[in-house]
Amino acid sequence: MRPRSISSSSSSGTDDSGPLVPKGGKGGLLAASQPQPFSNSGGSGPTIPQLAQQFMKLQQSNTNYYQNTISVQKGEITQGRIDLNDANQRYSTEQRTSALYYSKFTSQQSQLTQAQNDLTAEKSKASYWYQQYGVLYNRAQTLEATNEGLTARIAILEKANIDLKNERESRPTPSLDQGLRAELALAQSEVAALMAMKNELEQKVKKAEKDAWEWWNRSQELEQASEELQNERAEKVALRRDVASLRQKRERDKERLQKLKERAERSETLARERRETIERLTSRRV
């Protein structure tokens, strides 16, 4: 807002649109403060009462202008402080929320680590049971082949026993028959032992297969839980980015308030200096 100039003629009322300065070239107020020619009989220069009236109007106008300017700038400072307080409150709330989410994130991260360790252990157990299942299955296959061989051998021995029995009836040979019977009984006992071992191994294989499936299902559940925890971890990372953005905004608000304060201080200093200059010139003129 530019200061307006006044002429030597008097005018009524005041205007606070800007500080008043008298016309008169480069001298400004200092030039106006120099003695002016006047005459009681109607000279060309203004009279002393006219100059006094002009300076009174000038002082009132400048006072009103700077008071209005200072009032506006104080309002800006007040609004800046309100904005800063609001930003501080938002920042405090968001900081508490961030701390809460960070605590929850830390807890879930610990749970995720534990779940991953459990998953690794379960996978190791599942791999062990799969290996045991393969070993037991191969052993069962071997025992089954052995059992088939013993069954065939038993059939041969039974046939030989029948042949020997027939031959004994025609020509008794107690010693030979007794030896074959002993061999047959031994073979039958071996077959019974092998069958019992086979049944036991089949039960172990079934149990191992059942355990392996249980461990597999549990490992799948743990993998799903691990994925969910990783998704939550990504959400917490995004939240931390938002908190960092809010911190940057708060710093910008603080810088803006500081600039407003500096601007207000400069305006107050300038207004005080101009007011002192006007008062000094007025007092000198009076």
From TrEMBL:
Domain of life from the UniProt record: Eukaryota
| Residue segments, region Disordered | 1-49, 248-274
Query: Which residue stretches does the UniProt record annotate as biased composition, category Low complexity?
Result: 1-23
Q: What is this protein called?
A: Uncharacterized protein
Naturally occurring in which organism (per UniProt): Polyplosphaeria fusca
